[in-house]
């Protein structure tokens, strides 16, 4: 009996220690952490190999156990949102068990290839590209917030179907917000280091580390977009983190427009529908704040939501109440983090019936216990534009409701849109086979098309470069490029080809 018990315990012990970096953990780190934690990323250290990961084992354990990393502030149990960065329960358990059991490496030969991160435009050449002048960060012990106003020089209005922000110096660009200033009156502000962006301009979207380009749903039955009126300015509100003083950046934004003429595009609006500018935050107090909006005469569809507070924010929740007083859940951020904000896409558009009310409830922690409090000792803080002031806003991307809006799978549409729906051009001389595949994909490019440079890359559905097959190479005659996806985990990828200045892209499915 004792021998059987000993054998049982031995089996349990082997199971508990079965995870290794090479076989179980490396791919999870690559998929969920490496987009920021790479040598050129925004994170303070890289996690691209076993040596780097094991050196940070204690910190990684704490960050994952406390759900601080990967950064995903929304509570998915309240309202699931598209493209969540949160770890699945099984993924979290695998990493924590591996760390708790001494983080063995395993056989290095089994370690998957590390990802390659693209620093160029994922969506290819756009219709309008604007770049801020080279700027030298002034962020010493405090972050630097500056705004650049750039003329669009558009002589006629155009409708955005996609937008991509490309940081000029990724390690120092914490985030960037992009606005349309239809009046062309907002001025560049790089002097005070506290420019949070214009409050009267139209917010389009932005950039955060690891985020995908903004691609509006664009398919046979649903086309959404935002108009840039003629002669508008584009404002980029930039955030450079403390410690980046003296480093230079020249971030750019690329817009992709619908072809002219394109019919049936539904206009999206983006506004801070919920806002409160009348609160006061006494020192050493946690103060509750709320906002509501009831002037909703028509049914509307919500595409995304973007809650916004500053450094004293503690938590925020937004929801609707329909005319029957039933709750429509929108977002819950139980632990506010000023450094991680985004437009969060709903999985399906949310219908808000006419005569509903929208609400936001939150709190600000203006005490010494708040590590982000910029004032020591704490002082009375009021609403304002500066980062050391406070804001209580909830932005929405929204549009007039049409029957069936709530049935569109926004998560799938915006994933597939990255290459399929933005930079696709039909080139009959390109064949991709077999598709679906279990391992090797052949990309055959025929004859005369090869006179000029050819570039071909494989991307995942988050827009991350998986492998660059060829870059600016000249061929003669028909040639076949090959990609081996046998060791790739995802089931869907996008092959992107640039040939003679024309873009071609197609989904490939790995079975």
Q: What does this protein structure show overall?
A:
12% of the residues lie in helices and 35% in strands. The protein has 511 residues and is mainly beta. It folds into four domains: 2-110, no CATH class; 118-267, Copper type II, ascorbate-dependent monooxygenase, N-terminal domain (Jelly Rolls, Sandwich), CATH 2.60.120.310; 269-395, Sandwich (Jelly Rolls); 430-509, Immunoglobulin-like. Strand 16 (313-321) and strand 17 (327-333) form a beta hairpin. Helix 2 (21-32) packs across helix 5 (89-100) and helix 4 runs antiparallel to helix 5 (89-100). The chain starts with a helix and ends with a strand.
Given as residue ranges, the uncertain stretches (5+ residues, pLDDT < 50) are: 1-16, 416-426
User: How much strand?
Assistant: 25-35%
CATH homologous superfamily name of the largest domain?
Copper type II, ascorbate-dependent monooxygenase, N-terminal domain
CATH architecture level-2 label of the largest domain: Sandwich
- Secondary structure tally, helices: 6
> What would you call the shape?
globular
What CATH first level of the largest domain would be assigned?
Answer: Mainly Beta
User: Portion of residues in helices?
Assistant: 10-25%
The average pLDDT is 86
Structural class: mainly beta
CATH fold-level topology of the largest domain: Jelly Rolls
C-alpha Rg (nearest Å): 25 Å
Count structural domains.
Answer: 4
- Tell me the number of strands: 27
What's the story with the biggest beta sheet? 6 strands, mixed
């Amino acid at each position: 009996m004792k021998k059987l018990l000993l054998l049982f315990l031995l089996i349990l012990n082997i199971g508990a220690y079965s995870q290794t970096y090479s076989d179980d953990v490396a791919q999870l780190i690559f998929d969920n952490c490496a987009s920021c934690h790479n040598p050129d990323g925004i994170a303070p250290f890289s996690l691209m190999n076993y040596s780097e990961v094991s050196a940070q084992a204690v910190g990684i354990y704490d960050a994952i156990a406390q759900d601080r990393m990967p950064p995903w502030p929304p509570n998915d149990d309240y309202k699931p949102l598209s493209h969540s960065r949160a770890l699945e329960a099984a993924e979290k358990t695998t990493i924590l068990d591996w760390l708790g059991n001494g983080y063995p490496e395993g056989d290095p030969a089994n370690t998957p290839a590390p990802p390659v991160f693209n620093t160029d435009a994922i969506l290819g050449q756009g219709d309008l590209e604007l770049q801020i002048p080279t700027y030298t960060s002034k962020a010493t012990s405090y972050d630097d917030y500056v705004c650049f106003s750039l003329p669009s020089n558009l002589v006629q209005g155009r409708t955005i179907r996609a937008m991509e922000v490309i940081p000029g110096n990724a390690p120092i660009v914490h985030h960037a917000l992009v606005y349309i200033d239809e009046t062309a009156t907002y001025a560049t502000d790089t002097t005070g280091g506290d420019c949070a962006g214009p409050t009267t301009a139209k917010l389009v979207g932005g950039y955060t580390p690891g985020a995908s380009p903004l691609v509006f749903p664009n398919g046979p039955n649903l086309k959404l977009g935002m108009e840039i009126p003629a002669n508008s300015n584009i404002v980029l509100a930039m955030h450079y983190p403390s410690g980046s003083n003296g480093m230079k950046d020249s971030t750019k934004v690329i817009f992709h427009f619908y072809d002219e003429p394109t019919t049936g595009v539904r206009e999206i609006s983006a506004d801070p529908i919920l806002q409160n500018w009348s609160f006061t935050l006494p020192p050493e107090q946690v103060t509750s704040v709320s906002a509501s909006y009831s002037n909703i005469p028509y049914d509307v569809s919500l595409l995304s939501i973007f809650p916004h507070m500053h450094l004293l924010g503690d938590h925020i929740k937004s929801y609707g109440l329909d005319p029957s007083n039933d709750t429509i859940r929108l977002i819950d951020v139980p632990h506010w983090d000023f450094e991680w904000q985004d437009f969060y896409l709903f999985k399906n558009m949310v219908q808000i019936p006419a005569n509903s009310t929208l609400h936001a409830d939150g709190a600000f922690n203006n005490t010494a216990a708040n590590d982000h409090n910029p004032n020591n000792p704490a002082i009375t803080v009021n609403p304002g534009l500066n980062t050391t002031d406070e804001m209580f806003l909830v932005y929405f991307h929204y549009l007039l409701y049409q029957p069936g809006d709530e049935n569109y799978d926004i998560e799938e549409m915006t994933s597939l849109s990255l290459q399929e729906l933005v930079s696709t051009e039909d080139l009959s001389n390109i064949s991709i086979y077999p598709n679906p595949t279990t391992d090797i994909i052949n990309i055959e490019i025929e004859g005369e098309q090869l006179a000029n440079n050819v570039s071909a890359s494989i991307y995942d559905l988050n827009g991350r470069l998986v492998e660059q097959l060829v870059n600016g190479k000249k061929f003669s005659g028909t040639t076949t490029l090959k990609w081996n996806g046998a060791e790739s985990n995802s089931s869907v990828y996008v092959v992107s080809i640039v040939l003679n200045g024309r873009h071609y892209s197609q989904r490939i499915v790995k079975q």
